[in-house]
Amino acid sequence: MDFSFTEEQTLLQDSVEKFITNDYHFEDRQKVIKTDLGFSAENWNTFAELGWLGVPFAEEDGGFGGGAVELMLMMESFGKGLVVEPFLPSIVMAGGVIKHGSDAQKESLLAPMIAGAKRAALAYAEPQSRFNLADVSVTAKKDGDSYTLNGAKCVVLGGPGADMFVVSTRTDGGQRDQDGISMFVVPADANGVSRRDYPTVDGGQACELTLENVSVAADHLIGEEGKGYAILEQAIDESILAVGSQAVGAMEVLYKTTVEYCKTREQFGQPIGKFQVLQHRMVDMFMEHEQSKSLMYMAAMRMDEGYGPEAQKAISAFKVQIGKSGRFVGQNAIQLHGGMGMTDELSVGHYFKRITVIETLFGNADHHLRRYGSL
Questions:
Q1: Which of 24, 208, 294, 327 is the most buried (most CB within 10 A)?
Q2: What's the CATH code, domain 7-119?
Q3: C-alpha distance from residue 145 to each of 138, 141, 182 (Å)
Q4: Alpha carbons 254 and 332: distance in angstroms, whole number
Q5: Dist CA 215 CA 360 (whole Å)
Q6: Are the CB atoms for 43 and 24 separated by under 8 Å?
Q7: Measured at the alpha carbon of residue 140, what is the angle toward residues 137 and 144, in degrees to the nearest 5?
Q8: What's the pTM value of the predicted model, to 2 decimals?
Q9: Where are the domain boundaries for CATH 2.40.110.10 in the chain?
Q10: pLDDT (tens digit, 9 = 90+) per residue, 239-265?
């Protein structure tokens, strides 16, 4: 199996890592997450100018024709920098649904997203649904040439700064049926749309979305009516690859930072890195990261080969490994740094918070073990 990257993939990886190293400083990140926007508009425009916002989309849709490997490389680097700009919620999650729309929809919706002029958010989770994508109670009832949407969505990542929401709705069937789910694009300023914004523990932003008799035209439907589950499932699996890659990048920073700290922190007249028991602990951290990275490559290659049961199994296996390894690496990084590991001034605690959120995002390890066994 060939694990080498193409020249274009290497150039993409180098450009992102160069930006993270030279221009994305932890202190600046901590300042922008406290602003109303929650991220840097300047950085978002830079992402657009460099073409990163178009990487996951096909060339005929105005993108650069990147696949799962390109997404993996970008998100791994974003994880190293703890990037808070809404690439995941807007481009990967919402864009992952919109790219299955009609040519007219892609032209009107994807083009401004790729240019950085518009941002979207995917509203799919509901308070009772937990990790079941098919558990949808938000209704969309047809009314002539339009649909009327009613219901509420929770934990809409990137929702506070979104210009539009991609919403999973129930147009037919029972509350947990996979058939009967339809995806709609809802403008953020539409009548009847309200939201409650809040920050997330890892420095991001989310909202609770309420829809009260929201009317949208029929051309706001993505794909076929009642056939939206397959589109949503693929978008979420692509998002799992993205956040898992972020976790791999964060784990690399955590174990390397911990090794460097243990070389300089002295106890009993010598660096604590000379204690054999701590050396073993750091080797275990390295091994957990390497195992996660191996499954990341496997998941990306399976997704590029074609989306289906094998790709889904690889994604779930990757998510299980991330849940296990992320917790181990994060907890040991905190412990080996001592009390200062949880201070806001040190980046280690913030990486641990990001990994902790990723552990449960889109399904925890137990959920994906069951999914793996059922495929």
A1: 24
A2: 1.10.540.10
A3: 19, 11, 16
A4: 9
A5: 33
A6: yes
A7: 165
A8: 0.94
A9: 121-226
A10: 999 999 999 999 999 999 988 877 787
Residue in the structure block whose two tokens are 């919620």: 89
Residue 27 has phi, psi (to 5 degrees) of: -65, -40
Q: How far apart are CA 247 and CA 75, in angstroms?
A: 9
For domain 230-374, the CATH class is: mainly alpha
| Nearest alpha carbon to residue 37 among 3, 2, 85 | 85
Amino acid letter, 78? F
Superfamily of domain 121-226: Butyryl-CoA Dehydrogenase, subunit A, domain 2 (2.40.110.10)
Token output for 273: 């890195």
What Cα–Cα distance (Å) separates residue 363 from each residue in 73, 181, 334, 366?
A: 22, 20, 24, 8
CB 13 within 8 A of CB 69: no
Distance CA 52, CA 70 (A): 10
Chain region(s) in the chain for CATH 1.20.140.10: 230-374
Regions of the chain with pLDDT less than 70: 1-3, 266, 269, 272-275
Q: Is the CB of residue 338 less than 8 Å from the CB of residue 329?
A: no
Calpha distance 155→153 (Å, rounded):
7
**pLDDT tens digits along 34-88:** 998 999 999 999 999 999 999 999 999 989 999 999 999 999 999 999 999 999 9
Looking at the chain, which residues constitute the CATH 1.10.540.10 domain(s)? Answer: 7-119
Residue 49 backbone phi and psi in degrees, to 5: -65, -35
Alpha helices (H) in 50-173, listed in sequence order: 68-81, 95-98, 103-105, 111-114
Q: How distant is the alpha carbon of residue 290 from its chain centre?
A: 21
